[in-house]
Amino acid sequence: MNLLLRRLRADLFATPADGALSLGLIALISAAAVGLVQWACQKAQWAVIQANSTLFAVGRYPEAQQWRLWLLTALLTAATGVSWGLLRSHPRADREGQLWPRNDRLVLGLLAAVALWVPWALRLAPALQSRWWLLAALLGASRWLAGRFGSHLSRPLLRLFPLVWPLLYLIGMVLISGGLGLMPVPPSQWGGLLLTLLTASFAILLCFPLGVLLALGRRSDLPLLRWSAVVYIEFIRGAPLITLLFLGQNILGFLLPGGLAPDRIWRAAWVLTFFAAAYLAEAVRSGLAAVPKGQAEAARSLGLSYPQTLVRVVLPQALRVALPAMVGQFISLFQDTTLLSLIGLLELLGVARTVMANPEFLGNNREVYLTLALLFWSCCAALGLGSRALEKRLDPQTLSQSASRP
Amino acid sequence: MTSSPSNLMIEARGVEKWYPNGYHALRGVDLTVHRGEVVVVMGPSGSGKSTFIRTFNALEDFQKGTIRIDGNSLGNDLRQIDAIRREVGMVFQQFNLFPHLTVLDNLVLAPTLVRGRPRAQVQAQALSLLDRVGIKEQAQKFPGQLSGGQQQRVAIARALCMEPRILLFDEPTSSLDPEMVREVLDVMRQLAHEDITMVVVTHEVKFAEQVADRVVLMAEGSVVEEAPPAQFFKNPKHERTRRFLDQIL
Q1: Contact in structure between B91 and B171 (CB atoms under 8 Å)
Q2: With bands split at pLDDT 50, 70 and 90, how would you rate the model's confidence at A359?
Q3: Whether pLDDT at A404 is above 70
Q4: Is the CB of A302 less than 8 angstroms away from the CB of B98?
Q5: Which of A94, A312, A317 lies at the smallest CB-CB distance from B145?
Q6: Option in A93, A300, A399 nearest B85 (CB)
Q7: Mutating which of B72, B85, B93, B158 best tests the A interface, going by the most A Cβ atoms within 10 A?
Q8: Set of chain B residues whose Cβ sits within 8 Å of the Cβ of A399
Q9: pLDDT, tens digit, for every residue of A67-77?
Q10: Which residues contact A286 (CB under 8 A, 6 or more apart)?
Q11: Which domain holds residue A116?
Q12: Same structural domain, A239 and A347
């Protein structure tokens, strides 16, 4: 206790000016917090969220087919748990990993609490509530299993495991849109968080390889390639996304081979992809510039070919450097999906606007916007957490300090 | 050292190089190195000695003259260049270890990727090489966690792991703290007694005296003097060599 007091004093009240600033800030923060809690508990009418929770989650996706989305969510949850566990059971070669670090227990506990509380707060039917609990249990179980038995996995199997994710993406596309014996659900019926996540993940996954190629093109020795990349990047970066979105609705049908952009949603997703790729290319380019020339020289002098040098030596280092900037791009890309509501798509913000236009829920804008903000925030926080963990794992520098000295 | 033509490992004739900005870096350099020989190249900075040995594995191009490595001539044929690079290892001033790979993987990468050898076999060889240069226990660490001298020894082991016939050293001790120079030179000394052909750009006079079969002085882009170390250091023929030795001794 004494220690805590001393620490508080050192942190908050070291000098009179510090003390005054601290007191002022504490007063301000607590006033805001009290106001928010009072409003949220007493005045706010959460019925608007409770009544429309399905709409927010999946839009007008037919109810009879929603089991497909639950299945997909379960698959993604299991894959997340297994990946997470494998990361912990295979620490870096140079360090002792913990199977259950404190942060992991904290995050898992938090997720379990959310899975218990949110369905209850939304007044979901008991059957639906129990599905959320099952998902939380699935995450914990797959995390535990992969952590406990992951070290028995053979090396080739372990290397192949990341392929589960692109595979899951394809499975997800089939589950969502139908086909292969499943009843087709046209894109016009997708909406809400489902549509937001779908367009965002589509754009994030595709803009990454495209951005890397553009960055390489921009540094190429071939003038035609270099100039094409420069023109593309500068053109895209010079135009506002909303203009490109409207433009894309009108011209993408001609530019892309038929079938790739059959309707408004895919056209918008491609525009997001092309847009993000230009910004990503600049992030990757700065990463490439940070890799010393000697790295490529060493690789070439060992006999590695140009592609081998690029893939095994230069890119891993460049992408590691560019990682924070790239994740920043992904986060803003994720938020840019809200612009789709302006071209009439019912992603999260679009759904929210239709809900708020409903006379039954007039005057409930604050509840709706706050919910949206929380949803977006938690998705971006997850992206940020993941990227920081990845950064820590890939960074050779953080470890040199803790390395045992001879 | 016998000098039958089949023993010629490096044969450079009239090599000239201009940099894109017009600077004439190499002005007709000749050099022959035989199998198993250790040749030390010395010279003031800017004399073109690093540029010259970097042409041997095509890290630098040249505009005139010919270079033959173990009978294969270096030209614009990319496949030929890749084949030559496999036989010519290089150790750099800045080590240039791959920081994102463990020490062991630094060694294993090229033999598995380029020669297609099985990983387990290369790993065993890599460990014995690391043992030879005295850092086997660091195999699972990352290069950033090692001292400069250790890193350079890993770099030598990495080059050896490809089993090259020629090993080039480009000022291998110039960016090391003085107390680490010796551990690297000791490893190089060991290597010099083996079958491998070495061309070493360095300022380490003692190393050259003890180990080199021949010492070459380069200045202003050409070879000024070429002699066995005893003669080179005690009794140089050229005024330019004498001036250079005065400066470094």
Answers
A1: no
A2: confident
A3: no
A4: no
A5: A94
A6: A300
A7: B85
A8: 142, 144-145
A9: 888 999 999 99
A10: A321, A322, A325
A11: 64-88+96-164
A12: yes
Residue A26 lies in a domain: no
Count helices and strands in chain B by DSSP H and E runs: 9, 10
CATH of the domain at A355: 1.10.3720.10
Final residue belonging to a domain, choices A113, A145, A164: A164
Same domain flag for A106 and A212: no
CA distances to B31, B44, B52, B62 from B18, in Å: 19, 19, 12, 7
Tokens found for residue B2 = 């016998």
The answer to whether residue A58 is domain-embedded is: no
Is A294 within 8 Å of B96 (Cβ atoms)? yes
- Please check whether residue A28 lies inside any domain of the structure: no
Assess whether A121 and A236 both reside in one domain. Answer: no
Boundary residue ending a domain (A146, A164, A182): A164
pLDDT given for residue A47 in this prediction: 79
- CB distance A396–B143 less than 8 Å? yes
Asked if the C-beta of B109 comes within 8 angstroms of chain A's C-beta atoms, the answer is yes
Q: What share of chain B is helix, strand, coil (3-state, %, to 5)?
A: 40, 25, 35
- Tell me phi and psi for residue B164, to 5 degrees: -75, 160
DSSP secondary structure, B98-141, as one string: -TTS-HHHHHHHHHHHHS---HHHHHHHHHHHHHHTT-GGGTTS
Q: A131 or A179: which carries more pLDDT confidence?
A: A131
Supply the DSSP symbol for B8.
E
Percent of chain A exceeding pLDDT 90 equals: 38
Confidence of residue A315 (pLDDT cuts 50, 70, 90): very high
The residue length of chain B stands at 249
Range in A53-57, A89-93, A402-406, B72-76 the model is least confident about: A402-406
Do residues A148 and A199 both lie within one domain?
no
- In this structure, the answer to whether residues A160 and A208 fall within a common structural domain is no
Q: What is chain B's mean pLDDT, rounded?
A: 90
State the pLDDT confidence band at A253, using cuts at 50, 70 and 90. low
Contact B85 A93 (CB under 8 A): no
Closest CA to A47 of A118, A98, A114, A121: A121
Q: What is the pTM of this model?
A: 0.83
Q: Which residue would you say has higher pLDDT here, A282 or A358?
A: A282
- Give the DSSP letter string of A10-39: HHH-SSHHHHHHHHHHHHHHHHHHHHHHHI
Query: What is the ipTM, given to two decimal places?
Result: 0.91
CB pairs under 8 A between A and B: 82
Tally of structural domains, chain A: 2
- A53 found inside a domain: no
Q: Alpha carbon of A177 to those of A55, A61, B117, B169, B240: distances in Å?
A: 17, 10, 46, 61, 80
**Inter-chain touch B113–A299, beta carbons under 8 Å:** no
Q: Order of strands across the sheet with B8-18?
A: B24-34, B8-18, B64-69, B72-73
**pLDDT at residue A258, as a whole number:** 60
Same domain, A204 and A159: no
**Element of type H or E holding B160:** helix B148-161
Count other Cβ atoms within 10 Å, centred on residue A189: 17
Quick one: which of A74, A91, A334 has its CA closest to A203?
A334
Residues A298 and A201 grouped into a single domain = yes
- pLDDT tens-place string over residues A378-390: 999 988 988 888 8
Do residue A242 and residue A310 come from a single domain? yes
